[in-house]
Specification:
Helix content: 10-25%
Number of helices: 8
Structural class: alpha/beta
Length: 335
């Protein structure tokens, strides 16, 4: 048996032949420096539709991305066939750093986070004033998720021909949330769409809301040439039927912004929320947390915000609104 010392010659080293005749595997992955920039429009069962320059292409996720999900709104690097021709398939090799991430969990006990959209600037929370009845708890949860993600919330109230908006608007007035009120007649003649469109200019706006509130009907009015299926509210349960099954990014006709229509939700879990991020949306209250005890929930006996408000640094209604939003994490939407 031959033994090798410290000074073996290369000719003395035995090399096992590669019986398959292919190149050995390597952990060094290509950098894809020539990859094209793409914008994810929709994701459907592993097939990802992207906008590359002025072409819509279909792509799949590269294996090297591992379990990292690609979601609507992502900026990605794409290689392969970028012609957009029928039956062609490109490959997403890189997901660029996200400027914002809107997330939710199925419920407050679920540790698994679901990314709703990426790189949005604004969250339009669509709720009907009647048929179905408003669900303030769900609105509160969407607001908390928006503040956590760093998105500016926009409250869109539909069906004002069935009920007045005053009570609901009074509830959210202390938060300073911008709002738009619409009705079905104005949607038909385009007046409501114009008012909403003014709020969407130069922004990427994600639309969320539970089924039956008129979210997709509004999106269809904003982008008339891309009609999506709409449903009706069940007369017995008072709930809508899911007609939008996947998120879809649509450009506004004037090219000044994007609308992302998301599937209707019946719950919006906040298991992933960090209260310290939510307080940042309250610049008049945030300085008052400097004297709070460690890991303060901002709704306990020793919370420094009470004294902050007593000293006149912020309005009591603002603190009440903050605590109401914080409490939504412990309450279910049906409570």
């Amino acid at each position: 048996m031959r033994r090798y010392g410290k000074h073996t010659d290369e000719d003395d080293v035995r090399v096992r032949p590669n019986r398959k005749g292919n190149r050995p595997r390597t952990n060094i992955r290509p950098k894809h420096e020539d990859a094209a920039e793409g914008f994810v429009l929709t994701v459907d069962r592993g097939r990802i539709t992207c906008l590359v320059e002025d072409r819509t292409i279909t792509a799949m996720k590269a294996r090297e991305l591992g379990r990292k999900a690609v979601v609507v709104g992502d900026q990605v690097a794409v290689v392969g066939d970028l012609s957009g021709a029928k039956d062609t398939l490109a490959r997403i090799v890189r997901v660029e750093t996200r400027s914002s991430v809107l997330r939710r969990t199925a419920d407050d006990d679920d540790p698994y986070e679901r990314v709703v959209v990426a790189n949005a600037d604004q969250l339009a929370i669509v709720t009907a004033l009647a048929d179905p009845e408003p669900r303030p708890r769900l609105i509160d949860r969407c607001l908390v998720a928006a503040y956590d993600a760093g998105l500016e919330p926009l409250l869109v109230l539909t069906k004002s021909d069935l009920a007045p908006p005053d009570t609901l608007l009074e509830t959210y007035a202390p938060l300073g949330v911008r709002y738009v009120v619409t009705n079905r007649a104005e949607l038909a003649d385009g007046g409501a769409a114009d008012r909403v469109r003014e709020r969407l200019a130069d922004r990427v706006t994600a639309f969320v809301g539970h089924s039956g509130v008129g979210k997709t009907t509004l999106v269809n009015a904003l982008v008339p040439d891309r009609k999506r299926a709409t449903g009706v509210v069940n007369a017995v349960t008072g709930r809508g039927r899911h007609t939008t099954t996947s998120a879809l990014a649509l450009p506004l006709p004037d090219g000044t912004g994007w609308v992302i229509d998301t599937p209707g939700v019946r719950s919006f879990g906040l298991n992933h929320i960090d209260p310290s991020r939510v307080i940042r949306a309250f610049p008049d209250l945030e300085p008052g947390t400097a004297d709070c005890p460690r890991a303060c929930s901002h709704d306990e006996q020793d919370c420094a915000l009470d004294q902050w408000v007593t000293d006149g640094h912020a309005e009591p209604a603002r603190l009440y609104s903050l605590r109401r939003l914080m409490a939504t994490r412990e309450r279910r939407e049906g409570d």
